[in-house]
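Input record (one chain):
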Amino acid sequence: MNQEVASWPYEFALSKHYIKSNQRGTVRGQLFVNDRFISKQNVAASNAYIGLGPPGEAGSWQRENKGYQFWTKTDGEGNFIIENVIFGTYNLYATVPGFIGDYKYTSNIKVTSGSNIKLGTLIYKPPRNGATIWEIGIPDRTAAEFFIPNPPSQFKVHKYKNNSESKFRQYGLWEQYGVLYPKNDLVYNVGTSNYSRDWFYAQVTRKIGNKTYKGTSWKIIFNLANVNIASNYTLQLALAAAHEADLHVLINDEKIQEPHFSTGHIGGSNAIARHGIHGLYWLYSIGIQGKLLVKGTNTIFLVQSSGLSPFEGVLYDYIRFEGQ
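The corresponding structure, as predicted from the sequence alone:
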């Protein structure tokens, strides 16, 4: 296998439309992350996925299916080499484990036949508006770190060679939410709850009767020692996948007519029904006015309002509450 990988692109193809290795180019560089709330110095973006794709917005590569894409991973120091790139104009994109958001290089990259493009040092500044007050999960674009239940007893448990997949690939896991939370929805208490135990891997619908479903409302309860009502706070909400969902965010009042934030109707990756742990990535930086918060106990409501089928819902990746 390694020999075949090393010999690609093959030289035996005779079609005039086939681009051989000596007609392709190389792009190299080194990626760092700058997040002043984690480190005063730039941090090497180790094991980041970095690649060339058709020009577009940051993150647009995951919805692109017509143009060429060429990807690799950085080493421990953030170095990368993207080889055998077909000539054309690209944008450079990256995702970095441990950090939210999508990186995009500022300029288009024009690869020509035989070119060796050296980009030098690149800096990614992930979304950040303030210091972390609390966080739930790990920013890795998957829901794998959250609680994954055992499958319903009537279904056969399938064994996988990769043990990390043995849990979330079992059939009917979404139905276990109603078993674990038969009447009341999930409540997460910051400081005492543990996301690997207390945060269900998917916010799905609840079955009512034989054929009816309704959306669910989760609560995040947290305490603030002080609140600056003139300041703005930020809820960084990263979703690992969404399917036919409409997620509302409400602050300290679940009964208001209009939510403080709504994603709108999003998602079609069907990761929940297909036993996946991630799909298309979504990130929302939600501003929260200080006057909506109180000193002491606060509650954020996450309401998945769509409720037509058992597969409507979201997989969370990571949630972070930031202060000024």
